[in-house]
Design goal:
691 residues, alpha+beta, 10-stranded antiparallel β-sheet, 8-stranded parallel beta barrel, 11 helices, 33 strands, binds (2R,3S,4R,5S)-2-(hydroxymethyl)piperidine-3,4,5-triol
Length: 691
């Protein structure tokens, strides 16, 4: 890495360098990490053009004569932030109707600054742009993380016009890329089969990845991707790869448009779908952050950069191992009393687990939570099930030397709840329409745009933590997507702000929680992997990959997850056989080996395990504690993909010092009278001897 390329940037788009007389040397903006550069230039007429995102360029002295890539008939395809207007015909990053009805925006350079932040690993460049005709300014922020080789970017749109303007599109970034071919790798799936890997060779035209579900956005698509450049095949170790991930948990859209000159324009941001945003005079709009990395070492290099960045900057407590745990869900579901739980704790402690998590079903009195159809919103302990209280269970766990965690779903209510009886106006609902109901036939989503609801949701956590300071961990669930497209809080003119304001409300709540409870460990769960993204992870420690705990299917899901997210954030549990989702029986050793490649936990009724099985788990848990630093903080090297259909999957984690490594090898098929595929280890140091 750290290639020094000089002077290179113009050649990436050399086929496009246009006609026009040589002008004064354009000003160059070179945003650098240790191994990568993003290079832009300012043309003599003030357009900011994007030239290069790739290997580091130390001296980006430009080739003179670049006036603009503008072609009279074909438009400009490498604007650093594309807009509707002028000669841009591609889907724009920014589309505005101005106060006077003008639909055009043509941004021109005003200034730029670069400064190193208090964390000297981080440099921030801000490019100021303004419209040629309207009092509209855009600031592009680029934050470069030197060691991790990550550059994040977002835009701030400021309305200085005399009246309100409407933002129709407001992407976080537009990234033009020039290569011979583009292989898109992304995740797709559904509930119980999240994070499946898909490779698509981009052809001319557009391909988009998006969500309109607002809450459980990452079951189906994930706002993260890799683009392999100049190759039609995906490679783990070689070749150039650009990877991106959007830090937004609401509706998102990533658009990949390959134009007639084979330039790929990548747009990434909050989804403009049904989200026209009216920005009053003097107001500004900040887009979510888009995270990019470049690797010259294939997909593996891109993952390692993202994982490093995530542990250092993108995940709450990115360097603290979440404890091994027993979660009560698959072992007890809604049916338990204190005896059930304390017996589970006894068994968990005997096996060496470090925490017990009480899942759904512990709350609600008038509408007890004995099933999924009642009680959400009424966060008081169910006196019938647990007359001894939560503190009794928490203290019991603590006496056994274990931590204690609890499940909540604070953004939701059931219509069968005291909360809904008192505040029917607190739920998302379109005016004059019947409310659409979710899980259990009674679930609704609270309107997080409403500050009173934000206080309530914050209060759910705050009250629990003040009443039961023994709580060490919260599993924050969300089991409904937005199916009622209306806010009872926003005015009728601002209904299209709902998705944005809902997410901002969610972020405000998270910020308040983290300001008051920095040490609390919080898991993001949304019916499994509905919230696996860097929009939530700055506030959460980990996420639940899937409600499907079938170990063989987890191999595929966790493999996909590993492209973008580090093992420290990936909760993976040993569950019963036959499995509760697939009804398949998989040997316990296999279930253990899969769970041990993420944050190990158990989700089982230990009472139903044999002594031999418990002993095997005890041994594995003890062993996991010794390898955990390497698994959770090490560098991933994926060796054999389960998607390559060779009947096996294999990966390893290598400690940064390269003195230790953990190697995993799982069969995904049976082998009869066949050789097993050869696996070549990676990431080790040739000078060392490993035992
Ligand atoms: C969905 C989650 O993904 C499960 O793990 C469990 O917590 C249930 N909700 C509880 O209702």
């Amino acid at each position: 890495m750290n290639k020094t390329l000089k002077p290179l940037f113009a050649c990436l788009f050399s086929g496009l360098i246009c006609t026009g007389a040589a002008a004064a040397e354009p000003q160059v903006i070179n945003i650098k990490t240790d191994g990568s550069s993003m290079v832009m230039s300012v043309t003599s007429d003030g357009e900011v053009l994007f030239h290069h995102f790739g290997g580091r360029i130390d001296d980006a002295t430009p080739v003179t004569g670049i006036k603009s890539y503008r072609r009279t008939d074909h438009g400009t395809d490498n604007l650093a932030y594309s807009t509707m207007g002028g000669r841009n015909f591609r889907e724009p990053a920014l589309r505005v109707t101005h106060a006077d009805g003008d639909m055009n925006t043509e941004l021109r350079y005003v200034s730029h600054t670069t400064r190193t932040l208090a964390d000297t690993n981080v440099t921030r460049t801000v490019i100021k742009l303004t419209d040629t005709n309207q009092a509209l300014d855009v600031e592009l922020f680029y934050t470069a993380y030197a060691k991790e080789n990550v550059i994040t970017t977002h835009a701030v749109i400021r309305n200085r016009e005399k009246g309100s303007i409407v933002l129709h599109s407001f992407y976080s970034s537009s990234l033009p890329v020039k290569a011979r071919s583009y292989l898109l790798t992304h995740l797709y799936g559904a509930w119980a089969r999240e994070s499946q890997v898909d490779h698509t060779l981009l052809t001319h035209g557009s391909k988009s990845i998006e969500s309109r579900k607002q809450v459980r956005t990452t079951h189906t698509e994930n706002p993260a991707f890799m683009i392999t450049l100049d190759s039609e095949s995906f490679d783990e170790n070689y070749g150039e790869v650009i990877a991106g991930a959007l830090a937004w948990s609401g509706n998102f859209r990533l658009n990949f448009e390959v134009d007639e000159f084979n330039v790929l324009n990548i747009l990434a941001g909050a989804n403009p779908y049904a989200s026209d945003y009216t920005l009053g005079a003097g107001e500004s709009f900040t887009t979510p952050e888009m995270i990019y990395t470049y690797s010259s070492e294939g997909a593996g290099g891109a993952s390692r950069h993202l994982h490093d960045w995530a542990r250092n900057y993108g995940v709450w407590h990115g360097h603290t191992y979440a404890p091994t745990l027993l979660n009560s869900w698959e072992g007890a579901y809604f049916t338990f009393d204190a005896k059930t739980l304390t017996e589970m704790i006894d068994d968990a402690a005997d096996m060496g687990l470090e925490m017990f998590v009480l899942d759904d079903g512990w709350f609600g009195n008038k509408y007890p939570r004995n099933d999924s159809n009642a009680g959400l919103g009424d966060w008081q302990v169910n006196a019938k099930k647990l007359p001894e209280g939560i503190d009794y269970i928490a203290s019991y766990a603590h006496q056994k030397g274990m931590k204690f965690g609890i499940w909540i779903e604070p953004e939701m209510a059931n219509t069968t709840s005291e909360l809904y009886e008192k505040h029917p106006d607190w739920v998302l609902k379109a005016s004059e329409r019947d409310v659409v109901l979710g899980r259990g036939g009674t679930q609704v989503v609270l309107d997080l745009a409403n500050p009173a609801v934000q206080d309530f949701v914050f209060g759910v956590v705050d009250n629990l933590m003040t009443s039961y300071p023994e709580i060490d961990y919260i599993k924050w669930d969300a089991n409904m997507s937005v199916q009622n497209h209306g806010s009872q809080y926003l005015t009728k003119d601002n209904q299209s702000h709902m998705y944005i304001e809902f997410h901002r409300g969610f972020e405000k709540i998270c910020q308040r929680i983290r300001a008051k409870y920095p040490d609390l460990t919080i898991q993001a769960c949304a019916s499994g992997g509905g919230r696996a993204n860097y929009g939530v992870l700055p506030y959460f420690d980990e996420f639940w990959v899937s409600d499907n705990t079938d170990a063989l299917q987890r191999v595929y899901m966790q493999w996909g997850t590993s492209y973008f997210f580090p093992a420290i954030a990936m909760a993976s549990h040993i569950s019963a056989a036959p499995n509760h989702q697939t009804f398949r029986t998989i040997p316990l050793k296999y279930r253990i080996d899969v769970a041990m490649s993420g944050r190990l936990g158990m989700e089982i009724q230990p009472k139903n395990m044999t002594e031999e099985e418990k002993a095997l788990c005890k041994n594995a848990i003890a062993e996991y504690k010794t390898i955990r630093p390497v698994v959770q903080l090490g560098d991933i090297y994926r060796l054999l993909s389960p998607y390559d259909k060779q009947g096996v999957a294999s990966l390893m984690y290598v400690a940064p010092e390269k003195d230790k490594a953990v190697f995993y090898w799982w069969k995904t098929e049976h082998f009869c009278n066949q050789h097993l595929p050869r696996v070549k280890m990676a990431g080790l140091c040739a000078d060392k001897q490993y035992r």
